[in-house]
Amino acid sequence: MELKMISTFFGKQFVRGITTTACACGKRNFKKFPIYNKRGTRDFKARQAKNPNPEVPIHTYGTRPIGYKAGSAFVPIPELIPEIIVPDLTGFKLKPYVSYRVQDIVQPPLTPEELFGAVYVKKIADDFKAGKLDSDNQPLEPSPEERLTAEEAKKKVLAIRSDIV
């Protein structure tokens, strides 16, 4: 703690201040002030690089060592190096986890108009514009969608709706 005297317009005032900076190039009580890898002054880091102080451990931030130090050289052990194995998820049917906090998505039931619009309208409009309809307004070249039965078309639209959501 230091005590300073300041002269002002109103006279002399005493100001008490507390300094929290370290003095003497980082010489500290190492048990009271832990200095991990990036902390400390440049001079302290330079001294630690040349002649490490055993009272100041090298902080590993929770990682496990992958080898040992033999003299000044580090010897890695291949069995200690973690190997991350990631499975191939192409064609995986399950969807990612969804939290219970997500609001429910409510879809109205599928109407016949929506089914007709999703499966048949585009092809019928294209055939009409190109003049590819016969006298009964049936397509001259029916597409695979036009050959579907009612149940197959409904399954297809429900699959499309579930992919969108």
TrEMBL record:
Pfam families: MRP-L27. Its main location: mitochondrion. One of its GO terms (biological process) is translation. GO terms for cellular component: mitochondrial large ribosomal subunit. InterPro entries: Ribosomal_mL41 (IPR019189). GO terms for molecular function: structural constituent of ribosome. Keywords: Mitochondrion, Ribonucleoprotein, Ribosomal protein, Transit peptide. Signal peptide: none annotated. It is found in: Mitochondrion. Belongs to the mitochondrion-specific ribosomal protein mL41 family. This is EOG090X0IZW.
